[in-house]
Amino acid sequence: MKSNRKLLAGTALAAGALLTAAAGGAIAAAADEAATATPAAPATPATPGPHAWHRHGAGYPLSKLGLSAEQQAAVKACMENAVPQMASIRREMRANSLRLRQTQPNDPNYAGVVAQVAKANGALHAQMITQRAAMRARIFDLLTPAQQTRLAALQAQMQARMQARGAGTPPAAQ
User: Fold this and answer.
1) What's the average pLDDT block by block, 10 residues per block, for the chain (174 residues)?
2) Most buried of 104, 109, 158, 166 (most Cβ within 10 A)?
3) Residue 59 CB contacts under 8 Å (≥ 6 apart), including other chains
4) Radius of gyration for the alpha carbons in the chain, expressed in angstroms and rounded
């Protein structure tokens, strides 16, 4: 069970890293264009949302590869094309979870509902993993061989940092 969680977490982390890096690159490019077109407006402090810790920006691998403008646009398009499909899968998974939460354990059909939700969410997780892997492959194909090698090295460094962080925690906390 732990290996499934680690696989899902790793897949989610990789997809999130790709999404964040591409969005950061696109935002940086848009900011550069806006800065040359209009004078800079005074900065206002942004109120961090509930998931502000998700915003890593330049700390992720794609932002460190020196993507060309064409590559950045292609990555952005790839990610934007994947959003509707992944959002649909997430909506279905949430609906299944809601159905399970709304069914009480003393309900005579509880075991059947659990089995249906488990089967449905299993299939949805498989679809999500397949979608993320396909998006990752499309983005990887956009990179030059040197960028692909650099990306592998950056991902290995990130994995080593994550393992080092995890090594310092007590076993009960893991």
Assistant:
1) 58 55 52 47 44 48 82 88 91 93 92 94 94 91 90 88 77 56
2) 158
3) none
4) 20
